[in-house]
Amino acid sequence: MNPSSAASAVFDPWSAEFVADPYAAYAALRARGRAEYFEPSGQWLIPHYEDVSTLLRDRRLGRTYLHRFSHEEFGRPAPPAEHEPFTTLNANGLLDLEPPDHTRIRRLVSKAFTPRTVERLAPTVRRLAGELVSDLVAAGGGDLLAAVAEPLPVAVIAEMLGVPQADRALLRPWSADIVGMFELNPSEETARRAVRASEEFSGYLREMITRRRAEPGEDLVSALIAAHDEEDRLSEQEMVSTCVLLLNAGHEATVNTTVNGWWTLLRHPEQLAELRADPTDEGLSTAVEELMRFDTPLQMFERWVLDDIEVGGVTLPRGAEVALLFGSANRDPARFARPDELDLRRSDNPHITFGAGIHYCLGAPLARLELAASFGALLRDAPPMRLVAEPSWHEGYVIRGLRELLVAF
To answer: Which one, out of 117, 232, 333, 375, has a CA that is 20 to 30 A from the CA of 92?
Structure first.
């Protein structure tokens, strides 16, 4: 069996069974080696914690290669012209930039998106979480995803950006359509939806930026307009891409951590009961970190090989793409004791759910705030939940989450 067919024997990201539980396959990949080529997506799979953590910080890899090579020089085709609105939006966001542009933009965005900014949101986040949980309890239950997990981060980012209440329903569909392009081998229909959402969301934000230039407010858009460092300022496209990234990256991960986390808790009733009996801030924070490790919302993060690099005796050549398997790394027994066991009191927990290195998630403090608020409200203010129906998983593997989580009280 050649390496690519060996990987395909266990790694099948388009299979519903694999998406529902990829962790046995990860164990098989880790047992076989440190780097294995997966022909269907043309990527090298990296399943071990130490390698994933190291490569996230290695400057021989990059989220883009265009700061050093043309498409032709790198041996890669240019994106299709019909994808241009999505390509431009994505290429100007922090997630897909490398130094020096990444350094400049992250420095400027950090001036607007400070820890103080996040902390100032804390009362609003807790109030919104409490209201959503109260409504779910009053209804006797429902879909936890639609009632709490989705609306909370959308409301928070809308508050941050200054999006009026009447327009907030637009944000989630735009986000869902754009992040579809981050899955493996997306279809042309997925691309069409992403292009349309990129055009509409970008147009909406450009109009908002124009209004904020004339009449600045206390929102993040006004702060991004004002952010400067000597002569450096964010371009309008960079501001648009930053706002979209804050919605997409933070929102999708928070939604999936919430529903995947509650699905995990409902299957571990003894640990849930212990957490409910003593939901201190410290205990809740530790539990949320463990839920992010145990069932990671972002399963894969991709990088380009900019210079030849060796992993476990295998040379990955310039021009190759690596798939860093976050979900596998977070279950690696070489780093975590009893990795397949949920331990809500796990203190030694350096999971890499938020990444590492220069691309470490800028919105991690906000995500943690939102998660603590929603889990805390459900633990403290709601009666014990029970599952109404066995949930099913979305088809997407990279951003992995449930379609719904139907509960009752």
So the answer is: 117
Name which of 96, 188, 142, 201 is nearest 388 in CA terms: 142
pLDDT > 90? residue 347: yes
- pLDDT(1) > 50: no
C-alpha 294 chain-centroid distance: 15
Q: Which two tokens stand for residue 188?
A: 């042309």
Beta strands in 183-278 (DSSP E): 228-229, 232-233
Please give the sequence-ordered ranges of beta strands (E in DSSP) within 328-388, or none if there are none. Answer: 386-387
DSSP state of 298: B
Domains in the chain (CATH in brackets) are 3-408 (1.10.630.10)
Place of tokens 């990829």: 22
Query: Across the strands, what pairs with 323?
Result: 45, 302
DSSP 399: B
Could you tell me the CA-to-CA distances from 342 to 292, 330, 346, 379 in Å, in that order? 11, 12, 9, 18
Residue-wise pLDDT for 183-209, tens only, equals 999 999 999 999 999 999 999 999 999
Q: How far is CA 227 from CA 108, 113, 156, 163, 231, in A?
A: 6, 10, 21, 20, 11
